[in-house]
Structure formats: structure tokens, C-alpha cells
Design a protein that fits this description.
The complex is a heterodimer. By secondary structure, chain A is of the alpha/beta class. Chain A folds into 2 domains: about 130 residues, 3-Layer(aba) Sandwich (Peroxisomal Thiolase, Chain A, domain 1); about 220 residues, Thiolase/Chalcone synthase (Peroxisomal Thiolase, Chain A, domain 1, 3-Layer(aba) Sandwich), CATH 3.40.47.10. In chain A, about 30% of the residues lie in helices and about 20% in strands. Chain A has 13 helices and 11 strands. In chain A, the strands form 2 sheets. Chain A has a 9-stranded mixed β-sheet with strand order 3-2-4-7-1-8-11-10-9, with helices on both faces. Chain A has a two-stranded antiparallel ribbon with strand order 5-6. In chain A, a hairpin with a 1-residue loop joins strand 5 and strand 6. Chain B is mainly beta. Chain B has one domain. In chain B, about 5% of the residues lie in helices and about 35% in strands. Chain B has 1 helix and 8 strands. In chain B, a hairpin with a 4-residue loop joins strand 5 and strand 6. The chains are: A alpha/beta, B mainly beta. At the A-B interface, helix 4, helix 5 and strand 5 of A face strand 4, strand 5 and strand 6 of B.
Chain lengths: ~400, ~130
């Protein structure tokens, strides 16, 4: 084992997922946090570091009765929690705290104690001046802007986007907690209500309520906890632009490339070592960008990789793919509260503990790759159930 | 319903003044010659503060778009394009493509477009239309 290794020892989601009208945002954080503490036998007084986004770490610590020596409020959108994991690992190694709690909670559907969508930052911000006047209505008409160019450059089709949704629904069907479990076809996806051409409703993520939490500590201490630790092998992060219209390349996310490369370098693994992959799928195109920008596929090969069932579960069409992807059903079918990155990591941890509803047999290394804003930010965590 | 409009800042005022005067103004670094947008008083490529404002041709091509079907009352009740144009000078810019049907058939990637200024009172927005339309 490396001298400086950090591991997740507790992990849990909110007790309920989907529609939770009886819980405010702060209580969703707390519910997930208490479940994660119960998962590893800790009390709030055992926690000395907190990290969260959406609410402030101050609010979280006060509400749970935690007196931290470390607080991280990094807020770069849905991948914030990946960055929290990365920062927490460094903080534990530096001795800033011993046991750090990272939480997420969002009343995305019920809007209990939730503010409005904060995308623009006012009419004088750069997005407020140079994007908002042209009529976007939140992520479905913004995150999707580069895609027509991407399809043309890569010679992909809207059917390729729909395939992503269909295969993730196959995974969701195996997951009792998934919001959407009924099988769908490519035609179902293409014929669904148009949201922002070429994106139909089924190519857009769900809007649900829920939360999740992760507890990290040093690998040395991790051995004393009830569950097998899930170790962090490497992490990455980056940001590009708050305006999707100013992405350097509409065919590739610079933040994805930088974050992914850094995580692979830190972990010292190759792509062939990866058993399981989570790519934050706010919309159907993100897994395709992610497969290419993380280096699992060459540019132009991701659509065929998905179509040929390399990311799919076992079915009458064949055995499980060589790179199972978004095995909880993803933001498209499992749940999406607004900042989904936490759920991608929860599924990576479940897979490496061997307790996922759609378990990948023998999974040892999993990657959680997140996006923040609309290709604005990215965070990557490479996990293993074997001590490095 | 009144159109949602930008509130200029000291760094961007010249751009919106240009639109009001019927000119699409970009900036260019005099050290590394990069042309860029949105406005800022330094070069985003090399960091130099030696930059100048220049009048762009207002011509470019349709780079990517969506046709938004979600309600945005200040843009009317029909689905509308939200597009990014690649300007001949290099920078890319969000806009609406007007003067043509808001359909995939009419909105062909790489088609030439040109700026069409539209006055909304205190602000004039740089919209784009198919070239020659």
C-alpha cells in the first residue's frame, strides 16, 4: 500500500429517491449523511472535515453538529463532489482532517427549500450578456448547443444519441431504485416530445429529488471499518468556460481531457485496467464525448462502441460488454437531482463493494467522471477495491 | 413580454455601443494578433493588455444550433433557433438565426450567415440571417 492512500469507508444515498416532498434540501443532505455515517459506524462527532456544494459547508456542519477543521465549498456544478473527493484526499494526507464527510442533497423536483436555477449570474455576467438574450431555457437548450456540430464532424446520427438512452434503460431495468425502468426503443426516443431539436425528452436527464454522501479517511484507518475500503487511485479536475458557446472545440471537452489525463497519470493505470465506468450523463451526448475524451475510444468511434454493446448489460443480444457504463441507469434513467456527480460515485463504490443491483462480476477498478455546468468543469476519480 | 437584455459592464460597453451603431466590434491583440470575443481588456491567449477594437465583417457560418421548444415568452410562442456562428475573423458567438424558417431543413450547418442588428430599445442585439436573405 502506498504510504499516502485515502479510501472511502462510508457511502449512502438518501433513504428515498425520486419524489420526496417532505424533505427540504438541507434535510436531504443530512439524511444521506446520517445514512453514510451509519454505514461505517461513525457519529457526527467523529467527523472533522466537511465538503458540499449547493448549500454552504457552514450550513451542513452546523445542521449536523460537526465542528470541522476542514471545510470545502468548491461549487463548479454537478461534478463538484468529485473535486471534493480530490481535495479531501489531499487534505487527509496533509493532516488537515482525519475523517471527511462529503454530502449532496437537492430537491430538484419538489423544490422544497430550493432556490431558482442559477445558470446566468445576472444580466451583467458574461453568460447573461452573451448567451441569455438569445433564448436558452436552462441546460436542455444550452448543453445541447455543440451537438449538431459534433454529429457532423464525427458522422454520427441522432439514432446514435438514442442508442445511449436505450442501453442505459437496460441497466436501469435491473435497478429497483431507478426512476425509469420500462424498456425503450430507438424509435421511442426519437418520437418523444421535442425539447430542443435534435434533443427529445428521453435524451434529457430526469428531474428528481435525492442525495448522497461519502466518508473518506486514510487507508491505514480504513481497515478498521465494517466494509471493505474503496481506495482512491487517482483524481483529476479542470474547468474551461462558463459559456458553452465559447468552448474551444465543439467536438471535445477540454475540461474532460485535462481531468481524465491527470487522473490516469496519478493512478498509473491503463485503459485496459478499467472494469467499470460512470460518465455523468445529463444528456445523451455526454457518454459519447466522455468515451472519446477519456481515451476509451478514438474520436469518431464512440457511437459504434455503444451500438456494438460494449457498454451494455448481458441480454438476449449477448453477454455483458467489456466496459460496463452507467450501470445504475444514469442521469437519463436512474435519477438526476440537478448535481448528479454524487450518484455516479455512489455507483462506482457499490460496484467495487460488490453490492450493485446490476453488479459487474469481479470489478476491481472503476472510474467516476463528472461534468459541471455545460462542459464548464470536470472532475474524475479512479477507485479500486484493492489497496494500491 | 420584454426581451431579456444584457446589462453592459465597463469592459463590454463598447461592444453594445457598436451594435447600437450597426457595427459588430471584436477585439484583437496587437502582440500575438489573436482576434477574440467576448470583450475583455486583455488578450485571453497571451495575457497582453495591448489590444484594440476593430470592426468585424459581420459575416460567418452557422456552426451549431438547437431549436428550442421550451417556453421562453420574451421570444414569442414558436420554437426558435439558438445558434452559434463562427465568424470569419475566428471567434464564435451565440445568436439567433432569423429571416428563415426555424427548421432543420432551413438551418444547414456551415451555411453562410451575416449579422442583422435588431433594436430592442436600450440594447441592440446582433442576430444573424442567411447571407443575402
Amino acid at each position: 500500500m502506498k504510504q499516502k492512500t485515502v479510501a472511502a469507508v462510508g457511502a449512502a444515498e438518501t433513504t428515498e429517491l425520486g419524489r420526496i416532498p417532505n424533505m427540504s434540501v438541507i434535510q436531504l443532505h443530512a439524511d444521506a449523511a446520517l445514512n453514510a455515517m451509519a454505514d461505517c459506524g461513525l457519529k457526527p462527532s467523529d467527523i472533522d472535515g466537511v465538503a458540499t456544494a449547493g448549500i454552504s459547508p457552514t450550513e451542513l456542519a452546523y445542521y449536523l453538529g460537526i465542528t470541522p477543521t476542514y471545510a470545502d465549498g468548491t461549487s463548479v456544478g454537478g461534478c463538484s463532489f468529485m473535486l471534493h473527493v480530490r481535495h479531501a484526499a489531499a487534505a487527509i494526507n496533509e493532516g488537515l482532517a482525519k475523517t471527511i464527510l462529503i454530502t449532496h442533497g437537492e430537491s430538484g423536483r419538489s423544490r422544497v427549500g430550493a432556490g431558482g436555477f442559477r445558470g446566468g449570474g445576472g444580466n451583467s455576467s458574461l453568460p447573461g450578456q452573451f448567451e441569455a438574450p438569445y433564448g436558452p431555457v436552462g441546460p436542455p437548450s444550452m448543453f445541447t448547443i455543440p451537438v449538431m456540430r459534433y454529429l457532423k464532424t464525427r458522422s454520427y446520427t441522432v439514432e446514435d444519441l438514442a442508442n445511449v438512452c436505450v442501453i442505459q434503460r437496460e441497466w436501469a431495468a435491473k435497478n429497483p431504485r431507478a426512476s425509469m425502468k420500462d424498456p425503450i426503443t430507438v424509435d421511442d426516443v426519437l418520437n418523444a416530445r421535442m425539447i430542443a431539436y435534435p434533443f427529445t425528452l428521453l435524451m434529457c436527464c430526469l428531474v428528481t429529488d435525492g442525495g448522497g454522501a461519502i466518508i473518506l479517511t486514510s487507508a491505514e484507518r480504513a481497515k478498521d471499518f465494517p466494509h471493505k475500503p474503496v481506495y482512491i487511485l487517482g483524481t483529476g479536475e479542470s474547468v474551461e468556460t462558463p459559456m458553452v458557446s465559447q468552448m474551444e472545440d465543439f467536438n471535445s471537452s477540454k475540461a474532460f481531457r485535462v481531468s481524465g489525463k491527470k487522473a490516469f497519470e496519478e493512478a498509473g493505470i491503463s485503459h485496459a485496467d478499467v472494469d467499470h465506468l460512470m460518465i455523468y450523463d445529463a444528456f445523451a451526448h455526454l457518454p459519447l464525448y466522455g468515451l472519446e475524451d477519456l481515451g476509451f475510444c478514438k474520436p469518431g468511434e464512440a457511437a459504434a462502441f455503444v451500438r456494438e454493446r460494449n457498454t451494455a448489460p448481458a441480454s438476449s443480444l449477448g453477454k455483458i460488454g467489456k466496459l460496463p457504463l452507467n450501470t445504475n441507469g444514469g442521469g437519463l434513467s436512474y435519477m438526476h437531482s440537478g448535481m448528479y456527480g454524487m450518484y455516479a460515485m455512489q455507483e462506482s463504490i457499490r460496484q467495487l463493494r460488490g453490492i450493485a443491483p446490476a453488479q459487474v462480476p469481479g470489478a476491481k477498478i472503476s472510474i467516476s467522471h463528472g461534468v459541471g455546468g455545460m462542459f464548464a468543469a470536470s472532475g474524475t476519480v479512479i477507485w479500486s477495491n484493492e489497496a494500491p | 413580454m420584454d426581451r431579456v437584455l444584457p446589462e453592459p459592464t465597463p469592459e463590454t460597453q463598447h461592444f453594445w455601443d457598436g451594435c447600437k451603431a450597426g457595427e459588430l466590434l471584436l477585439q484583437r491583440c496587437t502582440e500575438c494578433t489573436k482576434s477574440y470575443f467576448p470583450p475583455r481588456p486583455f488578450c485571453p491567449k497571451c495575457g497582453s493588455r495591448k489590444v484594440e477594437v476593430f470592426k468585424a465583417t459581420g459575416k460567418g457560418k452557422l456552426w451549431s444550433y438547437v431549436i428550442n421548444h421550451r417556453p421562453r415568452p420574451d421570444l414569442g410562442t414558436e420554437p426558435h433557433s439558438i445558434a452559434v456562428v463562427m465568424l470569419d475573423e475566428g471567434p464564435q458567438m451565440m445568436t439567433n438565426i432569423v429571416g428563415c424558417p426555424q427548421t432543420p431543413e432551413a438551418l444547414q450547418l456551415d451555411m453562410p450567415v451575416e449579422v442583422k442588428f435588431e433594436d430592442f430599445g436600450k440594447i441592440t442585439l446582433p442576430l444573424f440571417k442567411p447571407a443575402g436573405a
